[in-house]
Amino acid sequence: MSQTTLQEPEVNLELAIDHGLTEDEYEMIKDYLGRTPTFTELGVYSVMWSEHCSYKNSILEIKKLPREGDQLLVGAGEENAGLVDIGDGLACAFKIESHNHPSAIEPYEGAATGVGGIHRDIFTMGARPVASLNSLRFGDMENPRVRYLLDGVVRGISDYGNSFGIPMVGGEIYFDEAYEGNPLVNAMSVGIVKVGETASAIAEGIGNPVLIVGSSTGRDGIHGATFASEDISEESEAKRPSVQVGDPFTEKLLLEASLEALKTGAIVGMQDMGAAGIACSSSEMTAKGGLGMNMDLDKIPMREEGMTSYEILLSESQERMLIVAEKGREQEIIDVYEKWDLNAVVCGEVVEGDRVTYWKDGEVKADMPADSLVLGGGAPQYVREAKKPEYLDTVQNFDTDTLQHSDDFKTILLDLLNAPNIASKRWVHEQYDTTVRTNTVNAPGASDSGLIRIKDSKKGLAVKTDCNGRYVYLNPRKGGQIAVAESARNVVCSGAKPVAITNCLNFGNPYKPDVYWTFKEALGGMGDACRKLNTPVTGGNVSFYNENPKGAIFPTPVIGMLGIVEDVEKHRMTPGFKNDGDAVLYIGAERKGLGGSEYLNTIHHLTTGDTPDIDLDFEAILQESLLEAIKSGNLNAVHDISDGGLATTLAEMAIFGAKGADVSIDDFAGSLHEILFSEAQSGAVISCDPEKVEAVSDHFKKFNIPVHEFGTVGGSELTINDVVSIQISEMSNRYEGAIPKAMEV
Amino acid sequence: MYKAKVNITLRKSILDPKGKAAHHALQNLGLKNVKDVRIGKFIEMNIDADSQNEARELAETACTQLLANEVMEDFQVEIEE
Amino acid sequence: MSKKIGVIVFPGSNCDHDAYHAMKHVMNADTTFLWHKDKEIGDLDLVIVPGGFSYGDYLRSGAIARFSPIMEAVQDYVKKGFPVLGICNGFQILLEAGLLPGAMLHNEKLRFVCKNVNIRVENNRSLFTSGMKEGTVLNVPVSHGEGNYFIDDEGLSDLKEHEQIAFRYCDANGNVTQEANFNGSVDSIAGIINKQGNVLGMMPHPERAMEPLLGSSDGIPFFESIFNSLQLA
């Protein structure tokens, strides 16, 4: 074997700029070190200060979100994921994260490693993952590249998640040209842990050994983190090799071994390795503990020969963790990992001081103050220039009355049911294991949110991801409010009380003032709704630079909502019609305004108008009263009105329940198009036994929520006045057939 | 040291859906002269043996015991020095 | 007397806890896990080889797991006439181990499929199915990418001759149709037994159909049928 020693490049401003750092940032690094950084140090700073790791352009805005709540056991951003007390001595760890850029380049591995990464965040905290969700955005399905991406992403999620053995309980998929070339792949994991048995990502106790466990280290994804912070271009398409490859089998072993190792009590701190691998995990743990760490890179198990300190520190090889053990008890931990056929090697030590020091071949390769590297410490934080985008006035003033509206309501409804954004996603979710772990009460599909029961408890967890990017594009503040409000309404519709959110903020380039303005406004809207609905933010992830040559994607702050069902046997709720003869009632706000609707998008091919209004005070009362009604046991079906409006909601309830309905919309105000297709917020359709109509109506009147009975369940048709009359089978064919037909051309 | 190159394919009598799908896709791409596609696995092993025959025997044992399932798969072994 | 059940854990098993929960908490059986490195089965009435992705299923489903030390013990256990139930990946392992005839191919449409399906009890002359009527339809989840059961014509005749087909995919009314055979299995086979009648392999997951809250409890009559046979043994 010939020994090749690569000459390290000379570190100067030019090289720093090549690493994506600015001149000011390079000066900051020199100040922190009191000298010119080594090549390895420059590499570490460049990834640690990348957008992906440092949140440098977003953290000041994120801090304005409400992050306090009685049930929160750790503050937002303090640990790998949010942790919420769910009672009965249990806590729920949950988080959503993006893997957009890797998925754009290599959809299968990009999506797979996204799933792996988010589950690792959860079990690093000592929680066992119990449910997954994913929130996906693609371009127009007519485009073969889009179908290729969808197919690859779904296979990637399916192969990784199914093997890892966590049920997929919910998610959403949207298609719009705005996401062409820059798909969004956001994955969410939900885990359960006993209160008091959680692990922390901290390095404490001078003299305690540091272990690396799991997979060996190779050259995977070096500078993946920096890569995620650039616009997608033809150049980054050529960077394909930097995408990591996932190994769900090893991750499954890592999960079982880590939870077992935590039970020994010999673990002081644990952190998973995602972006910027060893560099990030070791410096974050060290900074958090307020001490120092020495690490010998020669001890790290390698998959490839001749790797430099630069490469070892920045490698993003998957399925690895860093552990700080109680001194003298490291063997207990090693034994557990060996039982599961995994590496576990002592590679460092917690030391006095405040620096992370990395050795290789008997030399110090990097020696930096840990705090200077990390978010919340010395990493830069910026407020960017913000400017209201010019298109907003135009779209918000668009008058939908100027359009030619067809009165063929049957055709319109069938076209909406056939629209990819509304049509059944069964083709996708049947590729995911939805029933493993035997907890799934509401699987994806015929439910407003995913619902799992918690074994050894009466409770259940309702979870939902949601964001209508079109609404945020047309009115960032209202769009942000609606994303939170709607996901909360969705978990309420399954019988749960919304308690907290995680978020994945997908936006364009923050250096563009109009993108930054939109970002600030959307977060402002989210904050409004979180405060009103009492659902604090527990953490999440920011993904900037979601752009393609045509411009930025729709601003898409995806909300992951967590709700608690007090008694899952009694309170669980679904949207399908249940019994012939049941009364159908509408509750909520007036159905008015067609702005931003799927109707405008599908029928008129327009993305315009103002986003529907939302009165957050009204929304809060609606949710409270609806949850109480569900818990009273008086309701048989509940469905939120969202994309496609009232007509689509009724059609879905009929399709899900395989029962028709005959309804009259005479009591609704407004034009027929608005009544049937408006996506006005704060509305739901419910059904109940006919003899309970009075009690149900009185209940909502008590809360000042408008309510009226407007139809009856039964038959094999959906009939709306004399304007719509369609067989369920005809609706079902369009609703179920659209995606398979598009994918199997 | 010998290098064993092993090709594993589904037995001829068994429908190869991956091959079929690839064949269909190639037809759609206009490659009409591609008449049949079989998709299999390719495995390389470095084998420490005294002779080519011994290396072959070892490789074949590896195939019958683990690498191939003869209920549904055929395998071919090539040995190189 | 409570029945004693063992559930094997391979690296990559992920339905081991589901089988454990079904046996321990729904069927109230005395249930333990068996580790893949164990060399003995011990005093158990039934061994379950659960679903999952043993060794990642990286070479072929079940191909590596069958070399685990525990599988030698399983071979002995079967020889002694004790019952073994393989579910999903467990079925694949039993095929690879030669305890059941045939092999598993990728689903016909090359995609993983997870949904509830109907299966029909094809014969009730095995210890597993004796408590159920022939033709009974069970609604149970499937969740697999490689469940397309293959056996050659000769093997199929043999299976039929010895009444080894335990379950076939069917529609809600018990009709075996092409549409119901979603993964393309030979003769719509969902589960088979060995000639001696003490090994059953099936792709569907009866252990995931044990509670009405989760959508189906059709797994209960199936396990009750097994437990009754164990009672008699």
TrEMBL record, chain A:
Binding site for substrate: S98, H99, N100, H101, R120, Q244, E316, S317, Q318, S543
Protein name: Phosphoribosylformylglycinamidine synthase subunit PurL
NCBIfam families: FGAM_synth_II, PRK01213.1
Residue ranges of domain Phosphoribosylformylglycinamidine synthase linker in the record: 18-56
Organism of derivation: Rhodohalobacter sulfatireducens
Positions contributing to ATP binding: Y55, K95, N503, G540
Pathway membership, UniProt: Purine metabolism; IMP biosynthesis via de novo pathway; 5-amino-1-(5-phospho-D-ribosyl)imidazole from N(2)-formyl-N(1)-(5-phospho-D-ribosyl)glycinamide: step 1/2
Binding positions (Mg(2+) 2): D121, D272
Gene name of this polypeptide: purL
Active site residues of this protein: H52, H99
TrEMBL record, chain B:
Keyword terms, alphabetized: ATP-binding, Cytoplasm, Ligase, Nucleotide-binding, Purine biosynthesis
This protein's pathway: Purine metabolism; IMP biosynthesis via de novo pathway; 5-amino-1-(5-phospho-D-ribosyl)imidazole from N(2)-formyl-N(1)-(5-phospho-D-ribosyl)glycinamide: step 1/2
Location, primary (coarse class): cytoplasm
Enzyme superclass (EC): ligase
Any GO molecular function: phosphoribosylformylglycinamidine synthase activity
Catalysed reactions, semicolon-separated: N(2)-formyl-N(1)-(5-phospho-beta-D-ribosyl)glycinamide + L-glutamine + ATP + H2O = 2-formamido-N(1)-(5-O-phospho-beta-D-ribosyl)acetamidine + L-glutamate + ADP + phosphate + H(+)
Pfam families, A to Z: PurS
EC number: 6.3.5.3
Localisation: Cytoplasm
Gene3D superfamilies: Phosphoribosylformylglycinamidine synthase subunit PurS
Complex formation: Part of the FGAM synthase complex composed of 1 PurL, 1 PurQ and 2 PurS subunits.
Record family assignment: Belongs to the PurS family.
Protein function: Part of the phosphoribosylformylglycinamidine synthase complex involved in the purines biosynthetic pathway. Catalyzes the ATP-dependent conversion of formylglycinamide ribonucleotide (FGAR) and glutamine to yield formylglycinamidine ribonucleotide (FGAM) and glutamate. The FGAM synthase complex is composed of three subunits. PurQ produces an ammonia molecule by converting glutamine to glutamate. PurL transfers the ammonia molecule to FGAR to form FGAM in an ATP-dependent manner.
Cited NCBIfam families: phosphoribosylformylglycinamidine synthase subunit PurS, PRK05974.1
Name assigned to this protein: Phosphoribosylformylglycinamidine synthase subunit PurS
Source organism: Rhodohalobacter sulfatireducens
Primary gene name: purS
Automatic annotation (TrEMBL), chain C:
Catalytic residues as annotated in Swiss-Prot or TrEMBL: C88 (nucleophile), H205, E207
Primary site of residence: cytoplasm
Functional note: Part of the phosphoribosylformylglycinamidine synthase complex involved in the purines biosynthetic pathway. Catalyzes the ATP-dependent conversion of formylglycinamide ribonucleotide (FGAR) and glutamine to yield formylglycinamidine ribonucleotide (FGAM) and glutamate. The FGAM synthase complex is composed of three subunits. PurQ produces an ammonia molecule by converting glutamine to glutamate. PurL transfers the ammonia molecule to FGAR to form FGAM in an ATP-dependent manner.
InterPro entries: Class_I_gatase-like, PRibForGlyAmidine_synth_PurQ
Sorted UniProt keywords: ATP-binding, Cytoplasm, Glutamine amidotransferase, Hydrolase, Ligase, Nucleotide-binding, Purine biosynthesis
Lineage of the species this protein comes from: Bacteria, Pseudomonadati, Balneolota, Balneolia, Balneolales
Species this chain originates from: Rhodohalobacter sulfatireducens
Pfam families listed in its UniProt record: GATase_5
Subcellular location: Cytoplasm
Regions annotated as coiled coil: none
Descriptive protein name: Phosphoribosylformylglycinamidine synthase subunit PurQ
CDD domains, per the entry: GATase1_FGAR_AT (cd01740)
Catalytic activity as recorded in UniProt: L-glutamine + H2O = L-glutamate + NH4(+); N(2)-formyl-N(1)-(5-phospho-beta-D-ribosyl)glycinamide + L-glutamine + ATP + H2O = 2-formamido-N(1)-(5-O-phospho-beta-D-ribosyl)acetamidine + L-glutamate + ADP + phosphate + H(+)
EC numbers on record: 6.3.5.3, 3.5.1.2
